[in-house]
Amino acid sequence: MSVLETADAAIYFEESGNGPDVVWLAAGDQRGSIWRHYQIPAFDAEYRNITYDARGVGETVSATPPPWPIAYHAADVIRLIETQCTPPVTLVGLSMGSLIAQEVAFTRPDLVRVAIVMGTCVRKTGFIREWEQAEIGFRRAGGTLSPEFALAHYAFLPARWAMTNSGRSSAA
């Protein structure tokens, strides 16, 4: 367990493995450790993997109240890269993590080797905006997702599970 102190937050992060740095950015209200069950074990032998809890998630503590714009989250990741990594790094983002990865790549391209973004968008309009507003309302009212539904909701299915449940062998 490690904590990066910034002017207004204590950003919780974990690191493992050896090699070039990969920074993993989780979806929405998901803790960085969500990546550690299925993805990180496959990368630890060749890469140094850093996961973190964004503001409002898990162990990270923020003195600044929400809402936090994506640029604010990106500034946290930039600080994490500058202090804990050897740039340029690989960014892997899912959903909100992808929005953060895009912002980091556009703002500080010198820090990024490649950004792998999944489930992202450029502008939140129409259905995407309505979906986000509904989810924010659900969460603020105390709603939670079961682990099984969260896997599907955040498109975070482990390859072995997806292969097994699509009629293909899990040996692949």
Report on this model:
With 172 residues, this protein is an alpha/beta fold. Helix content is 38%, strand content 22%. The chain contains seven helices and seven strands. Strands 1, 2, 3, 4, 5, 6 and 7 form a seven-stranded mixed beta sheet that branches. A hairpin with a 3-residue loop joins strand 1 and strand 2. Helix 3 crosses helix 4. The protein is globular, with a radius of gyration of 16 Å. The C terminus is likely disordered.
Summarize the structure.
This protein has 172 residues and is α/β, with parallel strands linked by helices. It contains 7 helices and 7 strands.
Secondary structure topology:
Elements: E1 2-5, E2 9-16, E3 21-25, H1 34-38, H2 40-43, E4 48-52, E5 61-62, H3 70-84, E6 89-94, H4 96-107, E7 112-118, H5 126-140, H6 147-153, H7 159-165
Helix pairs in contact: 3-4
Helix content: 25-40%
Sequence stretches where pLDDT stays below 50 over 5 or more residues: 156-172
Oligomer: single chain
Structural class: alpha/beta
Task: Return Rg in Å.
Answer: 16 Å
* Structure annotation, total helices: 7
The separation of the N and C termini measures 33 Å
* Strand runs, count: 7
What is the 3D form? globular
SSE string, helices as H and strands as E: EEEHHEEHEHEHHH
| Strand residue percentage | 15-25%
Mean pLDDT: 84
Largest sheet: 7 strands, mixed
Please name the defining characteristics of this protein:
172 residues; alpha/beta; 7-stranded mixed sheet; disordered C terminus
